[in-house]
Batch of 3 targets.
Target 1
Amino acid sequence: MNFQKLFQKFVNRETMTYLVVGVLTTAVDYLVFWLVNEALKRTGMGVAATATWAQAVSWSAAVVFAYFGNRIVVFRSKNTGFRNILGEFGGFVAARAVSGAVVLILQWLLIDKLGMNEYLAKIAGSVFNIVFNYFAGKFLIFKSRETSGGK
C-alpha cells in the first residue's frame, strides 16, 4: 500500500471530525477538571484526592458531550428507537468507563506513586483515551442495529 492510499484511509471526514469533537471534548474535560480541582484544593484535600474527584466529575461531563458529538457529527448514527439508542448510549458509556478507569489508575500511579504533576498525568491519560475511544466508537458502538439482517 502506497503512502497516498494509506493517507486517504486514515485521513478522511470521519477521522477529522473525530479530532474536532475530541478537541472540544478534551476542552470540556480539562475545563471542568481545572474548575473542580482548584475548588477542591481550597478545602485542604491532598493533591491526589482532589485530582481523583476532579477527574470523576470532568469525565462525566465529557462523556455526555462526547456521546452527542460522536453520534451526530462523527459517526452519523442512524440508529432510531428507544432500545437502539439506549443500547448505543450504554455501549458508549461502558467503553468510556473502561478508558476512564484506566485514566484514574494512571493518575493514581503517576501522581501518588511517582510524584508527577497532576496536569501532566492528565495529558498522559488523554493519549490512551484518544486511541481506545475512536476504535470502540467505530467498531463497537456506532453500528447499525437494524433487526432486518443488517450488519
Target 2
Amino acid sequence: MKLLTDEEITAQLGVVPGWERRGDSIVITVARTDFRDALLYLGAVAYLAEAAGHHPDVAISWNKVTLTLSTHSEGGLTGADFALAGQISQLP
C-alpha cells in the first residue's frame, strides 16, 4: 500500500467528518453517553477493524473514545486508514 500525498490526505479528510490529521496519523475523539456506551461503541469499532485487518490505537476516558489510525508498516497514512475511518464514521 502506498503512502498518500499531503494533497490526497487533505482530500480524504473532507470525506471523513470529525477526523483530523496529527502528523502521520488521523485522530477522532467520540463522546458517548457513558462508560458502558463507550465500550459498546469500541466493540463495534473492533468488529470493523478485525474485518478490515487494520487496527486503530485506542484510548478510553470514561465516555470518550479516541481512535488513532496510521499504517505503521508504511510509516504514515494510506488508503486503508481512510477506508476504516469512513466505516467508523458510519457507526451510530
Target 3
Amino acid sequence: VEKPRTGPYKQGWYELDPYQISDGNSDIIKGRVWLTLLLQDNDLTRSLSALALTSYKKVPGIGPRRIKVGNACEYALGQGEGVEGVAQLAILKVKVKFGTAQKGIEKALVATAEREGIPRDELEEMSVPSYGLDEIGIRREQFGEFTAELHVTSIHKNEISWIKPDGKQQKSVPKQVKDDCAEELKELKAAAKDIQKLLPAQRDRIEQLFIQEKTWAFKVWGERYFDHPLVGYIARKLIWNINGQSVIYAGESFVNAEGISVTDIGDDSAVSLWHPIESSTDEIVAWRTFLEEREIC
C-alpha cells in the first residue's frame, strides 16, 4: 500500500495522484483490516501500525492519502487482545500529528482501557511490552550453538551481536542461524525495530508526566518504570523527586546532586518527575555539573 500506483487512474472525471488510495481499494483494505481481529498476531499488529502511518501520510496539495483506512487501523489496534496494540498506538500517537488521527488514537486507547478495566491514564504505562528484554536494555536469545545479544545503545538505536560457542563475538548473523532459525531470527529483528520506534514514544510520554503532576508510590513506580526492561533504560537516566528530594540512580544507589547516597526510601515513598522549573538556580547548576561530569545524556 505504501508504494505509488504503477499507472494513471481516474476516479470519475478526476485523475488520482499516484499515492492516493482509490475509494474501491480503500474499502477492500478496510475490510481486510477488520478481519485481522480474527487473527491475533504480532506481525499483523505491526503491519496495521505501518499501514496507518502510510494512510495518514500527506500527499502534497491534497492531504492525507486515505484517512478512513488509517482510522480502521486505529480501531483494530484498540480492539485487539493483549498489549501489542497499545504499544503501536503509542507510536502512532507520537508520529501522527493531525487532529482526526489523534482523536481516533485516543478513542482506541479509551476502548482498550474500558475493556481491560484499567484507568485510561494508567493504560499506557502498564501496557509497555518488554520485547523479550531480560535486563535493562538487554535481550539474550539462544539460536542453536550461538547466543544473540540485543543491546539498546541509545533512544534511537540498538544493535544485535552474536556470541560463538567459544565465547567470542561477531556482529554478522551466523550462517547456521540463517539456515536453521529463520523464523526466530525474523522475530528478533522485528523486536529490535519495534524497540527503536517505541523508545522515543515512551520518552515523549514520560516528558508529559510533569504537566500531569503524576505521582506514584515507590514500589509501583519501580515496577512500571525503574525496573521495566525497556522503560527502565530511560527512567535510570532521569532525575526524579523521591520524598521531596531530587535524586538519580548512579549504578548502585540513588544519589543527590552532590553524589551523596539517599537511603531513606521505602515502598510507599512518593515519586514524581523532577523539573528545573520548580528548583533553585543552585540546584539546577549542581545537577547540570553532575550530568556533564558523568556524561549522562
